[in-house]
Design brief:
mainly beta, two-stranded antiparallel sheet, 24 strands
Length: about 250
């Protein structure tokens, strides 16, 4: 076998060109066992050169999806890459609940309102969208005692009905009550008047009123109402209880 510089340069050039040129009986560049078969040799996976038989070469090894081919002792194999692991002759996602962990376990059916998970090789479950976790199960996140993503218990508010919209608790005041934002007050209250809880304004010489729909006022004795305020009922232009304008004579 030759080892001079011209020979070695030829070996390197041939392999860079694709390992397809006969250079000698042993040491011929190759890409498959068939290239070496006439000499009773096999294609060595580490050097891509013909050498002693090792149980079959690895040229042309293929791998499944998410894997790289490898050769060990002349036998093709593969190594899973990325967030995957080996299950028989495939590479499965590490988070796949149908092939969980090194044993490729099929995770059990999830409970109501939940879906299966596989995290760090262990089966589990997580609540579906619109459900929250109680610690032992999943409940619709509009439930008044398990409201929103954290399963809050909505508090009771006097003169109101509890509500939950799936994101947080709320309340709706009973009929004849208005909301202050934190509670409910009778809608005839002078400082929480009508459906929007208005503060009724003070009017001179009058008493504030609220009938449950809006604010008003009642003039004091000896005063009459102009509609917007109260004037002494002896005023010539606002005379008597109805605020008449006295005619000129």
């Amino acid at each position: 076998m030759r080892f001079d510089s011209v020979y070695l340069w030829g070996v390197a050039a041939a392999c860079l060109a694709g390992c397809s040129v006969w250079l000698d009986t042993e040491g011929k560049s190759c890409s498959a066992d068939a290239d070496c078969a006439p000499a009773g040799l096999s294609c060595q996976p580490d050097t891509n050169q013909c050498g002693p038989l090792t149980g079959g070469g690895c040229a042309g090894c293929v791998a499944p999806a998410n894997a790289n081919p490898v050769c060990a002792g002349g036998i093709c194999d593969f190594v899973c890459v990325g967030a995957t692991h080996r299950c028989a002759d495939q590479c499965k996602a590490d988070a796949d609940p149908d092939a969980c962990g090194s044993t490729c376990q099929v995770c059990p059916v999830a409970s109501a309102g939940a879906h299966r998970t596989c995290v760090t090789g262990s089966c589990g479950e997580a609540c579906d969208a619109d459900f929250c976790s109680t610690g032992t199960g999943c409940i619709a996140d509009t439930d008044l005692d398990h409201c929103g993503p954290t399963c809050l218990t909505c508090p009771t508010v006097a003169d109101a009905t509890r509500t939950c919209d799936g994101t947080g608790c709320g309340f709706t005041c009973d009929a004849d009550f208005c909301s202050t934002g934190t509670g409910c007050v009778a809608d005839t209250d002078l400082d929480h008047c009508g459906p929007t809880c208005l503060v009724c304004p003070t009017v001179a010489d009058a008493t504030r009123t609220c009938d449950g729909t809006g604010c008003g006022f009642t003039c004091d004795a000896d005063f009459c109402s102009t509609g917007t305020d109260c004037v002494a009922d002896t005023d010539l232009d606002h005379c008597g209880p109805t605020c008449l304008v006295c005619p000129a004579v």
